[in-house]
Structure formats: structure tokens, C-alpha cells
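Aim 2, interim progress: modelling of the 1-deoxymannojirimycin-bound target.
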Amino acid sequence: MCPKTSKTTPLLLIGGIGFVIVLVGITGITLINNINLSNIIRLNEKVASDSVSASDNQIKELNYVNNHPKNIYLKLNDTLHADDDNSNDDDDDVGNGQQRDEAAQEPGGGVMEPPKVSAVIGSDPKSYEGRNFKQNQTTVPASSAVNSSASAPSAATPAVVFPSEATPLSVAAASGPVLPLGWGKDMSNASSDGLIDYEKRARVVQMMEHAWRNYKLYAWGKNELRPLSQRPHSGSIFGSYDLGATIVDGLDTLYIMGLENEYREGRDWIERKFTLDNISAELSVFETNIRFVGGMLTLYAFTGDPLYKEKAQHVADKLLPAFQTPTGIPYALVNTKSGVAKNYGWASGGSSILSEFGTLHLEFAYLSDITGNPLYRERVQTIRQVLKEIEKPKGLYPNFLNPKTGKWGQLHMSLGALGDSYYEYLLKAWLQSGQTDEEAREMYDEAMVAIMDKMVRTSPNGLTYVSDLKFDRLEHKMDHLACFSGGLFALGAATRQNEHRDKYMEVGKGITNTCHESYIRAPTQLGPEAFRFSDAVEARALRSQEKYYILRPETFESYFVLWRLTHDQKYRDWGWEAVLALEKHCRTPHGYCGLRNVYQQEPQKDDVQQSFFLAETLKYLYLLFSDDSVLPLDEWVFNTEAHPLPIKGANQYYRQAPVTLPVSNAS
Ligand code: DMJ
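Predicted structure of the complex, ligand included:
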């Protein structure tokens, strides 16, 4: 026994030592890996890029591949054609992002066509008056205009049902067709009108890339970028919390342009970071609605990705306490934690502001339809009723309304600041409803007829402008903000043949021309915040505090709408002038800034890249050089932040919820 023992002891000893060495080695490697990983993670957090570490990226990539709208369709296709070809495997995509990009961009070939909906229920193209509304000759009665709300749910019924056993991860709830990422670029079809200005459009895409890249570099996850100081800007309208306003606002523009990696980064940030829970931000109900709720809703319409619907509802729920007033007219500001709401101290006697409480309808109505929760629509319908029933001085809407008494404040009227988008949402609520919300169209027509009569004027040299009205006195001044109304008047004309139609179109073209004049009369070729008309000046700012330009979109918005409706080349030419001016004066090495005085040859810059520059200004310019099949105006209606929302009954991406859910507790 002894000899045997003495032989095996060294063997056991050697084996034991070897085992310990291997164990230590494995532990060491694991530790080193972990240390590296956490360093990488920390480093990445530090450089303000939430695109995470290398290993995390792989997880994100997988999630992305599964969640990505285009790949949802790939999955869908795979399921449907499981027997066709095994090579159409998502794993290939995981391994080769390049290939995926190329496939997505290959005209006519690699592009995944969205599933065809056999018929958009109730959608009769002839009930609209031509894609560009050009052949509008007859009145379109509400009854003949697309489908009623009763049949609307069918319009969103997916053409192809996603079999649950093949449903990957969170894609489960994504239903209905998906608008492929970058279809605005890739899927413009020659059959529409062939009117794509590729070169100019590519320039706008480069501008978007520049704006996004620098935001990502210096302000990722914050609200906006300060290009000169290369740091974040968190303006008070976002409650000074890091809400990624530029991401949420700019994401649909990236999607339309087909900037896939950028879109992916943004979606990822929203999924991982965006929340209003556990923060005590004092938010503007209006700004939060048009940018955050509006932005999420558009992304939901495009992709069917449930993430966006959840986030839109999450944000809207945080705004609901503001509606708890005796009249149902919401306050301007709400605290996301306490729910305490209030109005601005400066607004006439504690009033709410017309352009704010009057610019919720599109988003809230659509949110009700996609969630099946009627509460949101009820809230904006209450506002509508108050405004419908209240007496309107000379048929006009003053800018201020007291939410407690339901009485008007100061009798100031404007199609610019404090009034503007209320009028816009009357027309667009009617359009969004598939022209069934007749009440909205009537209120629009009544308001615009009164405005044409009491506020629209022509200068001695023939420039049409819309003046502010204070009590009975016209202030012959027009805000840059009011420049959107050129497009609005024209859209009103193009969508209904009535006795006002010609006048609407004339005024729409006239206002757009005047806004262009306000641009080209400045050495920078960019328009001031407000401009005046007198015997001495026309379309020119006089006061120092109205000479600035903050990258606003309204004039380009009107160029875009007028281009779509008329195909008059001058609107594209004017848009191109603006692109060159933006590049010359507003571009910096680290993003785009506004200008302090458009009348100086070398104006000082303001160091803010507004989120609406990405959401609106660049989107409208991009669309101006695209053909009409990209977001056709008879299928999409733009919210006031340029987030396109689908038109009920005319758009297969409407995605109406089939069931009604219980009322939200957050009211
Ligand atoms: C945007 O936020 C919206 O267009 C809003 O309706 C008005 N102001 C800015 C852009 O100028």
C-alpha cells in the first residue's frame, strides 16, 4: 500500500497544482475582461454617447435587427415565404451591416416593399382632388370623403397577420404595414412625376448629418446643441431636464432621409433613456405635445413599433393634469411629478394661450385612435366646444382665454405668435379625420374669412401680409411665425371648392411671396423674426429685438406646400436660396446657429441649434426637393412641428386600435 501511496501522491500533487493554475488563469481572464468592459462602458458614458460598449452593442444590434422596422418586414416575409429560400436569413444581416445598408438602398431591388394592403377600406382616391389637389373642381361633402370613423378600424387592420409563434421579442405588438426606413430616398418612384432634385436634396441630407453628428458629439441626450461653445443647451421650454429633445424631434427626419445608423442610435436612446418618470420637470404642455408626443406618434405611424406608442402615451399622460380646470382649457405649464399646473405670469390676467391650448387636437385625437383610449380625444373635444360656443369678437379669436372663467383676456389677435397654430389645427383636424370632422372645417372657414377681412392687408407696393390686431387697431407687423399661413391658406383652398377658394389661394401665394421678400431684403438672405409695413418700409424689421433669425421653418414650410400644390419652380428656387444662406451664415464647424441680426453682412451667431431645425426646417427643405410620392398631402397631415400624421381612411399606416381600452388613471 505504501509504495502505491508514495507513487500516487506526487501525481495528485501535480494534478492539484495544475488545476489551481488553470482556475487562477480563468478567473484572471474573466476579471480582466470585466474590468475592460466596465472601463469601456464608463468611457462611453463619459463621451456622452449612449451608444454603449462594444459588447453591449452586439446585444443592441441583435435587438435592433429584431426590432427594426425593415427587419420586422424581413421577419414577416420570412414567415410568409418560409419555404421559398433559406438564404433570406436575418443572421446574415446581423453579421453584415454594410450588406444590409446596401440592400436597403438598392433602387427597386434590395428595397423591401411594404406589405400591400389589399384595399384601404373606404379610401377612394377620387374623394380627394388629385394627389396635389390640383384638379379640385367640386365640393367634397363630408359623407363622400373617405370613410367614417365607424369603418376606420378596418383601415388599420394589418394586411398580413404576424403569426405569434414567429414573433420575435418586442416586435409582437407591431402590426400593420411598415414604411421602410429611407423610403423617402429610396422609394421615390419615377412613375409619380419624376420631379426629384437629387443634387439639392443631397445637400439637405448633408446638412442633417452635420447637425446630428455635432449634437451627438457634444450634447447627446441633452435637449439641444450649442454649436459655438460645443456644449449642450437645455432651454427652459424643456423644463431644463435632459429629455433628448433633438433626438425625439429629429428622428422622423432621419427616418425619411434614410439615415439608418443615426436613426438606430436615436431609437436606442429613446428605448433606454427617455422617460418622464421620477423627474420634477415643469414642462410646456404645448411644446411637449408638438415635439415629443407628435414626434413619437409619427414614428409609430411609420414603423408600427410599439415603443413609440407607449412613449407617446407616457408623455401625454404626464400632461393630463394640466386639463383639470373649470373649463377644461388646459394650463400652459405642468409639473411632471406633482401634476401642479399653472399659466405664465405674463399672460393676460392668468390666461391660457390660444396657440398653445388650441394646438393639441391632432396628437390627442390620434393617440386615442391608436390606443383605443377615448380620454385624449375627449380632452381636446372639450377645448373645441368651449371655442365653438364662446362669442368671438368680430368673428376673431383673441390670443388669451382664462381657463377658470372661460372669458377672453386682452383682445389681441394674431396669425403669428400666440395665435398661429390654432388655425392650422382647425384645418388639419378636418383633414386628419378624412374630411369628416365638418365642425373643424366650418370653424376654420369662419375664422379665416374673418382674418382675411380684418387682418390681411396689401402694402402700397402690393405685398400681401397678415397684420396683428390689438383691440380695434391694426399693427402693421407680421411675425416670421405667421409665414406658415401661406401654406395654410393654400391647403385650405386646395381641399375644398367653396366661395372662398380663389381668395384663399391668392392670399396664400401672396403671403408666401411676402415672406420671401422679407428674406431677400436682408443681406443675409434670411428673414427676421418680425417685419413691418409703413409708408417708409415694407417687409423689413425695424426694432432691434425683431431682427434675429433662429433657424425657423415657417417660410420653407409654405414653399413646400405651394410647391406641392402648384409645381411652380420658383418655390424650389426660393428654397435653394435659403439653403445657400443657411450654409453661408448659420453653419459652423460644430452645427447650425441662428443669427442675431439678419441685416448685418457678418452677423453674430446665437449659439443654439434649435431642435425644430432638424424636425422642421431640414425636413421641409428635403421634401421640397423630393417628388410628390414622399409623404403625399392626401395621405399625411403635418403637425405644427412638421411631424407627419396619417390621414384616417386614406393612409394604411393609421394603425387604429381595434379595441377600446379602459380609461387611463393618469387624468
Ligand atoms: C415650432 O416649434 C413650431 O413650428 C411651432 O408651431 C412654432 N414655432 C416653432 C418653429 O418656429
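The chain has a mean pLDDT of 79. The longest strand covers residues 530-533.
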